[in-house]
Design a protein that fits this description.
Blueprint: H1 5-25, E1 32-35, E2 38-41, H2 42-67, H3 73-96, H4 102-124, H5 133-150, H6 163-185, H7 187-191
Catalytic activity: a CDP-1,2-diacyl-sn-glycerol + sn-glycerol 3-phosphate = a 1,2-diacyl-sn-glycero-3-phospho-(1'-sn-glycero-3'-phosphate) + CMP + H(+)
Membrane topology: Multi-pass membrane protein
Family: Belongs to the CDP-alcohol phosphatidyltransferase class-I family.
Length: 192
């Protein structure tokens, strides 16, 4: 099977998942970075950078596939799978590190599985459910919240702002809202 550029980028995103997890969970002693009187672990900074690169490839592969007319069935399957692997793996890692409550990860991951199930049911009936604007906001807030959690609220801890917790709550609210929105707007897919 020959992979086009968009699918190769998606495969790169999947290959970045274990690398992000490695830097998050292994806790290499690479020293600390001090900024505004707050110290950050270099492992966290590297994990955050790799996660951001992986998140950027999500938009990049879709843009390339659409603009160059490289949309394939394999890409339609692989792209959302890569997104779910990346987000789920990092959320579970953050739970393991004690930076995220398990119930939050369960809500986020459950919503992803539920919407994927809805899409599969709709696809079996010949309907394609495109990503909604709410879902795009959800993705953006998830990326911001996850990066804030990976960085362990760096550099906001010196000014007593729990930016990471505010972003987690925003992520949970829009995740639930967008999930409900998908099911309400696509209830005919379930009824068929």
């Amino acid at each position: 099977m020959k992979f086009n550029l968009a699918n190769r980028i998606t495969l790169v995103r999947i290959s970045l998942v274990p690398i992000v997890m490695f830097f998050l969970l292994v806790r290499l002693d690479l020293g600390k970075l001090t900024l505004f009187g707050h110290q950050a672990n270099w492992s966290d900074l590297i994990a955050a950078l790799i996660f951001i690169i992986a998140a950027i490839t999500d938009g990049l592969d879709g843009y390339i596939a659409r603009s160059r007319k490289m949309i394939t069935d394999f890409g339609k399957f692989l792209d959302p799978l890569a997104d779910k692997l990346l987000v789920s793996a990092v959320l579970i890692s953050l739970v393991d590190l004690g930076r995220l409550d398990a119930w939050v990860a369960i809500i986020i991951i459950s919503r992803e599985f539920a919407v994927t199930g809805l899409r599969l049911v709709a696809a079996a009936n010949g309907t394609v459910i495109a990503a909604s604007k709410l879902a795009k906001w959800k993705t953006t807030l998830q990326i911001i919240a996850i990066v804030a959690l990976i960085l362990n609220n760096f550099p906001f801890s010196t000014i007593d702002i729990r930016f990471d917790l505010w972003m987690v709550w925003a992520m949970v609210v829009i995740t639930v809202w967008s999930g409900i929105d998908y099911f309400v707007k696509n209830k005919q897919a379930i009824q068929e």
